[in-house]
Design brief:
Blueprint (H helix, E strand, L loop, with lengths): L8 H15 L6 H8 L3 H4 L6 H16 L10 H18 L14 H15 L5 H27 L3 H27 L10
Helix pairs in contact: 1-2, 1-4, 5-7, 5-8, 6-7, 7-8
Length: about 200
């Protein structure tokens, strides 16, 4: 490796995002990020203690670039949720390489802030914290599932499949409406967990 520019935390995150976009998050390694910047892998450890910390920081950057919140925060919770879910889906569908590691990544500050913001929006609309958390995870599961299916449809794209992809997008929108309807129906009663 050559001695050159001293890289900062953002440089390593951007290099990691490049590797993730090219090869997938599950194939990210400190060595690949270092190679992207033409530095030794040890240089990264000045900024990140391990690969998981780098992936978490990269996911936060991905979330920040996705702009999931509506510009107008004063809209009703249903439209806010529709917008947020659609932006999450659009971002994830555009960067499908994140899918294999969801569930195994430690949430970073921005990912945690999305959950907190979601819960705040719903509790301000009369939901209990538990209902708001359940709603958040219902949306996340719907988004991840829909993005996974959409991605698999895209692998075999032809004209007929483009119609199917459009139909799938419509099904995703309907699924979000079902989540909204379920939330509305359960707004005043606590959902009992299944045992």
């Amino acid at each position: 490796m050559t001695q050159g520019k001293k890289h900062n935390r953002a440089d390593y995150i951007n290099a990691a995002l490049t590797v993730i976009a090219r090869e997938g998050a599950e194939k990210l390694s400190m060595r690949k990020v270092a190679s992207q910047l033409n530095v030794s892998a040890m240089a990264i450890y000045k900024h990140f203690s391990n690969k998981d910390e780098l992936i978490s920081a990269s996911l936060d950057t991905f979330i920040a670039k996705s702009s999931v919140y509506p510009q107008n925060e004063d809209i009703n919770w249903q439209d806010w949720l529709r917008h947020t879910a659609d932006r999450m889906f659009t971002a994830l569908h555009g960067e499908i390489s994140w899918l294999p590691v969801f569930g195994s990544i430690k949430r970073g500050p921005l990912a945690q802030e999305v959950l907190t913001h979601f819960v705040k929006k719903l509790t301000a609309s009369g939901f209990s914290e538990q209902q708001a958390c359940d709603g958040y995870f219902a949306i996340i599961h719907t988004v991840i599932g829909a993005a996974s299916i959409q991605s698999s449809l895209g692998r075999y794209a032809n004209d007929e499949d483009n119609e199917r992809e459009s139909s799938h997008r419509h099904q995703f929108t309907n699924s979000i409406e079902f989540v909204i309807l379920a939330l509305e129906q359960n707004r005043t009663e606590l959902i009992q967990p299944l045992n």
